[in-house]
């Protein structure tokens, strides 16, 4: 049985948002970091920071600071679309609009991880990782 590290990361963000926590610290991976940077660019997160302590040989961590307050949250819903058991790939013309353009979709493309509207502009498709609103 395998775990899905990206789904665990999204669950940590979702739980922190619902519990009105301001930050989350998770184990580092490049995919998590790339997704977090896309969410920061789109205004869902305040900051993303790599915590790395090389002298104690501790594995690196990713610190994410959520945007918003307890009553007014920037991150309302975050959902994993492509899962390890059922991958979902979309072409440039098939990228879904989330909540009529109020949310975003995040794709893993040959040009890197990016928001759906940017992938449409660049005319590239890829794996539809998640949707956020």
List the helices and strands and how they pair.
Layout: H1 5-18, E1 23-27, H2 30-41, E2 45-51, E3 61-66, E4 78-80, E5 89-90, E6 104-109, E7 112-115, H3 116-122, E8 126-132
Antiparallel strand pairs: 1-3, 2-3, 4-8, 5-8, 6-7, 6-8
Characterize the structure shown:
The chain is of the alpha+beta class and 133 residues long. The chain has a single domain (5-132), classed as Dna Ligase, domain 1 (2-Layer Sandwich), CATH 3.30.1490.10. It is 25% helix and 30% strand. The chain has helices at 5-18, 30-41, 116-122; strands spanning 23-27, 45-51, 61-66, 78-80, 89-90, 104-109, 112-115, 126-132. The strands form two sheets. Strands 4, 5, 6, 7 and 8 form a five-stranded antiparallel beta sheet that branches. A three-stranded antiparallel beta sheet has the order 1-3-2, covered by helices on one side. Strand 6 and strand 7 (112-115) form a beta hairpin. The chain is globular.
């Amino acid at each position: 049985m395998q775990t899905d590290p990206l789904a665990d990361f999204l669950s940590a963000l979702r739980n922190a948002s619902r519990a009105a926590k301001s930050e989350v610290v998770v184990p580092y991976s490049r995919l998590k970091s790339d997704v977090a940077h896309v969410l920061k660019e789109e205004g869902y997160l305040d900051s993303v920071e790599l915590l790395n302590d090389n002298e104690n040989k501790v594995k690196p961590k990713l610190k994410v600071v959520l945007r918003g307050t307890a009553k007014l949250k920037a991150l309302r819903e975050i959902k994993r679309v492509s899962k390890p058991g059922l991958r979902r790939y979309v072409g440039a013309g098939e990228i879904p609009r989330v909540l009529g353009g109020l949310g975003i979709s995040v794709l893993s493309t040959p040009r890197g991880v990016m928001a759906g509207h940017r992938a449409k502009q660049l005319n590239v498709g890829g794996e539809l990782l998640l949707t956020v609103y």
